Amino acid sequence: MADFPGNLQYTAEHEWLDASTPAVIGITSTAAEALGDIVYLELPEVGATVTAGSVIGEVESTKSVSELYSPVTGTVAEVNQAAIDDPSLVNAEPFAGGWLIKVDVTETGPVLTAEEYSALVGG
Predict the structure, then answer these.
(1) Which residue, 59, 9, 71, is CA-closest to 34?
(2) DSSP string covering the chain
(3) Consecutive 10-residue runs of the chain (123 residues): their mean pLDDT?
(4) Measured between alpha carbons, how far is 60 from 1 in angstroms, rounded to an integer?
(5) Model pTM?
(6) Is-contact 80 3, C-beta < 8 A?
(7) Are the beta carbons of 26 and 102 closer than 8 angstroms?
(8) Residue (of 120, 118, 122) closest to 6 by Cα position
(9) What are the backbone dihedrals phi and psi of residue 84, each rounded to the nearest 5 degrees, phi first?
C-alpha cells in the first residue's frame, strides 16, 4: 500500500501541494515511479502566473514526457533549482527535496485528501 503524506493535498493528475505560504508543489511518488528515471524538468519562471488545471511545464524521463498541471492559481514565487540541476531528486525525494515550485496562491483548484488520492491510484 502506497503511503501518501496526510498533510498534503493531491490532484487527479498526480501533483501535490502543501498548505504553506507560498504553497509548495511537486509530483507524487506514484507519478515519479510511473515515469521512471527523470532526466529533465521544464518549469515556469519566478513571477509567472499559473492557473489551476492548466499546463505549467513538463517532466521528461527515460520512458516518456509528461505535462505538469497546476493545482492552484497564483504567482510562482520560487523554482527548485536543485531539482532542475539534478532531476533525479524528484525520483529520490518526491515529497521532500524533489519539490518543483512554490506559488503565492490566490485560488486552489480541485484537490483530494491523501485517502482519496490513495483510493484513486489503488494504493
Answers:
(1) 59
(2) -----TTSEE-TTSEEE-SSSSEEEEE-HHHHHHH-SEEEEE-PPTT-EE-TTSEEEEEEESS-EEEEE-SEEEEEEEE-HHHHH-THHHHH-TTTTT--EEEEEEEE-S-B-HHHHHHHHT-
(3) 86 96 97 95 98 97 95 98 97 96 97 96 84
(4) 26
(5) 0.95
(6) no
(7) no
(8) 118
(9) -65, -45
